[in-house]
Amino acid sequence: MNKEISEKTLPVPKLLHELFGRRTTKAELAIVLASCILLSSILLFHTFDEWSELAVWKMILLVILTLDITGGVVANVTKGTNEYYQGSPEARLVFLTIHVQPLILGWIFGNLLLCAIIWIFTISVAWIITRIEKRDLQRTAGMASALLGLGILTLLSDTHFILNGLLALYILKLVLSFAVDHDKAK
């Protein structure tokens, strides 16, 4: 690794490779964390009346899911995260498999049908997009699929703004941010 690159990137602890890749920059890390905290705060504070009467443990779970989804939308397009998952098809499959957040949200808000539809659509489309070899085609398919998913969500939307918002961000996180290879070198 040349000196210029090593000075601009930071090693990421192994425990956090799934979030930020093996290396990241201070700028990307700051952007991911700031956008995660700001968007989560806006969503949670704006919709507090929708979830304020949930059991405390459901509130905690909702906050964790919100942070995970909002942070992932941006983290998945960083160079480090993109390189990490592009280099490991197994890790990509595991990443997609563990993303059951919509099912948990459906259980929290009592709309498992909507959340299951969004989950099945998103995971299926993300898996298909990851199998497309041409990066330009991935981008186009990713955007079209994300818009289709948002259209489906609009047609089936729930009365909870926070649920709709998190499902929309989940679609963007997996279909557009994760499934598409954002590396300019290809």
Topology (elements, then pairings):
Elements: H1 3-8, E1 10-11, H2 17-20, E2 23-24, H3 26-46, H4 48-51, H5 56-75, H6 79-86, H7 89-98, H8 101-109, H9 112-131, H10 135-156, H11 161-178
Antiparallel strand pairs: 1-2
Please give the radius of gyration in angstroms.
17 Å
Report strand %.
under 5%
- The DSSP helix count reads 11
Terminal CA distance: 20 Å
Largest sheet: 2 strands, antiparallel
Mean model confidence by pLDDT: 92
Number-wise, the strands total: 2
Give helix % range: over 70%
Number of domains: 1
Shape: globular
Q: What strand line-up does the widest sheet have? A: 1-2
Structural class: mainly alpha
Order of helices and strands: HEHEHHHHHHHHH
Q: List low-confidence stretches.
A: 1-6
Keywords: Membrane, Transmembrane, Transmembrane helix
Transmembrane segments: 29-48, 55-75, 104-128, 140-156, 162-180
Give an overview in words.
The protein has 186 residues and is mainly α. It has one domain. The chain has eleven helices and two strands. α5 runs parallel beside α11. It is globular, with a radius of gyration of 17 Å. The N terminus is likely disordered.
